[in-house]
Amino acid sequence: xxxxxxxxxxxxxxxxxxxxxxxxxxxxxxxxxxxxxxxxxxxxxxxxxxxxxxxxxxxxxxxxxxxxxxxxxxxxxxxxx
Length: 81
Prior knowledge:
Elements: H1 37-80
Keywords: Membrane, Transmembrane, Transmembrane helix
Protein name: SpdD protein
Organism: Streptomyces wadayamensis
């Protein structure tokens, strides 16, 4: 009942003749990329400078937030008197 039914005479798969191309297209050589020590140093210095600027912005933001909380509490105490 659940057995597969196979065809009586299976047909062979079609065959395709293989043709060889005359010549493969010539590949261009990849360009040489050289990284100098000056470029590496510039990237490192740039990364250090950007990290320092980000740290300065973060410290400034924290100090402004603390100052705002202190001023708010001082003003609130003044309004209650």
